[in-house]
Design goal:
three-stranded mixed beta sheet, mainly alpha, globular
C-alpha cells in the first residue's frame, strides 16, 4: 500500500531530524576543538569527526531520502504542502543534488583533513610558520577543485563556490560591486588621511585586565538581548559563532591584554550572529531551515551590531561610563568624544578583524581576488604569501612583517571555506541598507540606542530577518525588509556621512 503524502512528509521530517542530530553532535566536537581540547587528542578527535560526518553524509545522500523528495515534489502532493514545508523540500533538494555527487569516501577524507588542518593552522599561526600549514592547504585546494568538477562549473570555477555561501551571487556581479566600492572609498580614505583632524588613539594601547574586558563583554551581550539560557561566551584564537540549535548558540572572543577594543567589538560582532540564530522561529527547529539564509545576510547582522550600533556616538554616550568603571583611572582623562573618534579611526592595517569599517572592504577584496586566482587561474599554496603581501602593499600600503599577520591570519581556508570572504562586504552593504530603513521606520531609533534600549531594535530585526531563518531567500529578506533589492550606495552614503563628520571633511 502506497504511503499517503502525510506519511511521506513525516518520514521525510524524521530523516531530517536525524541528520540534524548528527550535525549538532559534530558542532559540539568542532566547538571543543577550537576552545581548548588537548592537542594530543586532536588527531583521534579528527578521526571521530570524520566517522560521524560520514554517517551523516550517508543519510543526507541516501536513496530513501531521494525517493522521499521525489514523492513530495509531485505536483499533486507539493500543492498540499504548507509554504514552510515546500521551502524545506526545495532547500533539501538543493543540498541533496549537490552532495549526492560526492563519493562518501572522498567526503570523509575531506572532513578528517579539514579538522586536522584547523588544528595545524592554530599552531602554524602561533609560530608564524606558513610551511607548517602549507601541505594541508595544498590538499584542501585539491579536494575543493575535485568538488567543483563534481558539482559542475558555473560561469567560472569560483562562481560554483560563491553560490554555496550567497545563493545567486556571481563573480561578474561582485567584480562590478567591488569595483564601484573601491572607486568611492579610495578617494574618501585619501581625504581622511590628509585631514588635520586625526583622532588620538594612544590611550587605547594600555594594559587592560582580562577580567574587566570579559565583564564588559558579557554586560554588552546582555544589553543586546543575548539569551544566556540559550548560549554562552568562551575564548578562542579566532572569534566565531556556532549555532548547535536555536536553544544553544555559542560564541567566542579573543582578549588582548594591550587592546581593549578587540574583545569588545569581536564580542558584539559574534553576538550579532548569535541573535540571528537564537531568534529563529520554533517551527523551523530541527530542520535545515533553522539557520541563516546566507552568509551575507548573517554577516549583515554581525556588522550591524558591531559597527552601526557598537561604533556609534549614541552607543558610547550611554555605555562609556560602564566601560570606565571596569578600568578605574585608565579613561579618566579621555572624553566620550575622544573615545568615539578613536574607535572609528581610519588607517591602513594588517589584520582584517581589527580593521576600520572603511578599509575593511579592501581586506575582503584582497581575499576575494586571491581566491579567484586559486580557482580560476591555478595559483598554488606556495604562491600565496607573496601574492598576499603584494596585494597588501598595493591596496593598503602596508606589508606584513611575518605570515602570522599576513596569509595565516584567518581560519577560513583551513576549514575549506573558499567563497566565504565576499559575504563580509555583502554583509556591510545589507547592514547599511537595513539601517537606512530602520532609521525611517523607527523615528526614535538613535534615541533608543542613546538610552541603551536595544531590545526594540532586536525585536524589529527578529520580525524582519531573524525569525525566518532559511525559510526566505537572501533576496526575499532584503526586499521584504527594505522594500528594494541590494543597493551598495547605502554603504557608501553611510560611510561618507559618518567619517566626514569624524574627520571634519
Amino acid at each position: 500500500m502506497a504511503a499517503t503524502y502525510e506519511q511521506s512528509l513525516q518520514t521525510f521530517k524524521d530523516k531530517m531530524k536525524q541528520i540534524k542530530s548528527y550535525e549538532e553532535a559534530l558542532a559540539v566536537l568542532y566547538w571543543d576543538l577550537r576552545t581548548g581540547a588537548p592537542r594530543k587528542g586532536m588527531d583521534m578527535r579528527s578521526e571521530a569527526i570524520g566517522v560521524l560526518s560520514a554517517e551523516s553524509f550517508k543519510l543526507a545522500t541516501s536513496k530513501e531520502l531521494g525517493e522521499l523528495l521525489s514523492k513530495l515534489e509531485e505536483k499533486e502532493v507539493n500543492g498540499q504542502l504548507s509554504d514552510l514545508d515546500r521551502r524545506l523540500v526545495a532547500e533539501t533538494r538543493k543540498d541533496y543534488d549537490r552532495s549526492v555527487l560526492i563519493p562518501p569516501k572522498l567526503y570523509q577524507e575531506y572532513v578528517v583533513l579539514t579538522s586536522q588542518s584547523e588544528s595545524a593552522w592554530e599552531e602554524a599561526k602561533e609560530n608564524g610558520d606558513y610551511d607548517q600549514f602549507r601541505p594541508y592547504l595544498d590538499k584542501i585546494i585539491s579536494y575543493t577543485n575535485q568538488f567543483i568538477d563534481l558539482w559542475g562549473v558555473k560561469a567560472t570555477r569560483y562562481d560554483t563556490l560563491l553560490d554555496q555561501y550567497e545563493p545567486g551571487m556571481t563573480v561578474a556581479e561582485l567584480d562590478s560591486v567591488f569595483g564601484g566600492l573601491r572607486d568611492k572609498l579610495v578617494p574618501l580614505a585619501s581625504a581622511i588621511a590628509a585631514s588635520p583632524h586625526q583622532p588620538n588613539t594612544s590611550f587605547l594601547k594600555q594594559q587592560y585586565a582580562k577580567e574587566g574586558q570579559k565583564s564588559f563583554s558579557l554586560f554588552i551581550l546582555e544589553q543586546m538581548g543575548f539569551d544566556f539560557q540559550s548560549g554562552r561566551l568562551d575564548e578562542s584564537v579566532h572569534p566565531f559563532a556556532t549555532g548547535l540549535n536555536i536553544g544553544d548558540v555559542r560564541i567566542t572572543t579573543r582578549y588582548l591584554k594591550d587592546d581593549v577594543t578587540s574583545a569588545l567589538f569581536g564580542t558584539i560582532h559574534e553576538g550579532g550572529h548569535a541573535l540571528y540564530e537564537q531568534n529563529i522561529m520554533a517551527e523551523l527547529a530541527g530542520t535545515p531551515l533553522a539557520t541563516g539564509t546566507s552568509m551575507g545576510i548573517h554577516e549583515s547582522q554581525s556588522r550591524f551590531w558591531e559597527n552601526v550600533i557598537g561604533r556609534s556616538r549614541p552607543f558610547w554616550d550611554r555605555y562609556y561610563g560602564d566601560l570606565q568603571s571596569r578600568f578605574p583611572g585608565q579613561f579618566d582623562d579621555v572624553s566620550v568624544d575622544d573615545f568615539y573618534r578613536a574607535t572609528n579611526v581610519v588607517q591602513p592595517s594588517l589584520i582584517r578583524i581589527e580593521a576600520d569599517e572603511l578599509t575593511y572592504n579592501l581586506h575582503i577584496i584582497i581575499r576575494y581576488e586571491i581566491e579567484k586566482l586559486i580557482f580560476n587561474e591555478g595559483a598554488e599554496a606556495e604562491d600565496l604569501p607573496a601574492i598576499w603581501n603584494d596585494k597588501y602593499r598595493d591596496y593598503l600600503g602596508v606589508v606584513p612583517s611575518n605570515n602570522a599577520e599576513g596569509v595565516l591570519q584567518d581560519v577560513h581556508w583551513s576549514g575549506g571555506s573558499f567563497g566565504y570572504f565576499p559575504s563580509y562586504s555583502l554583509g556591510n552593504m545589507y547592514a547599511a541598507q537595513i539601517a537606512d530603513t530602520m532609521e525611517r521606520e523607527l523615528p526614535n531609533f538613535w534615541q533608543l540606542v542613546g538610552e541603551g534600549s536595544l531590545l526594540p531594535i532586536k525585536q524589529w530585526l527578529t520580525e524582519r530577518v531573524y525569525k525566518w531563518g532559511k525559510a526566505r531567500t537572501p533576496s526575499e529578506i532584503i526586499l521584504g525588509t527594505t522594500g528594494k533589492p541590494l543597493d551598495p550606495s547605502h554603504l557608501v552614503a553611510y560611510l561618507e556621512r559618518k567619517y566626514k563628520d569624524i574627520y571634519k571633511l
